[in-house]
């Protein structure tokens, strides 16, 4: 009903200056700036050897996924993959725990 408010002379002058600078290429679009900033991040791969994990389990008599990840310095997902691989091979067994927080023991 009321419409837009009329801009003051100073704000109109600023908007004209901005339009000129955009045309001349002084300011870049967000997409252009975003493309320049992003650099490809290096992929970090940490391999946890099953023999290393088994050695830690035998020295502690039992181990959880979280403890294995902390002691070896790998992600929890890598420690989980290693322990599930050892479980399938029969090198370790579940001794207790619940809901994904399992305690693993070496098989004698």
UniProtKB/TrEMBL annotation:
Chain spans, region Disordered: 1-42
GO CC, any one term: ribosome
UniProt entry tagged with the keyword Repeat: no
Keyword field contains Cell wall biogenesis/degradation: no
SUPFAM superfamilies: Winged helix' DNA-binding domain
Basic and acidic residues bias spans: 14-42
UniProt entry keywords in alphabetical sequence: Ribonucleoprotein, Ribosomal protein
Family that this chain belongs to: Belongs to the eukaryotic ribosomal protein eS25 family.
Official protein name in the record: 30S ribosomal protein S25
């Amino acid at each position: 009903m009321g419409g837009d408010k009329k801009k003051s002379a100073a704000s109109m002058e600023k908007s004209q200056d901005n339009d000129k600078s955009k045309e001349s290429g002084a300011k870049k679009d967000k997409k252009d700036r975003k493309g320049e900033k992003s650099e490809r991040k290096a992929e970090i791969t940490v391999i946890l050897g099953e023999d290393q994990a088994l050695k830690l389990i035998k020295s502690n008599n039992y181990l959880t996924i979280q403890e294995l990840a902390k002691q070896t310095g790998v992600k929890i997902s890598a420690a989980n993959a290693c322990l599930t691989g050892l479980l399938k091979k029969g090198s370790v067994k579940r001794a207790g725990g619940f809901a994904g927080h399992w305690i693993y023991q070496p098989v004698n």
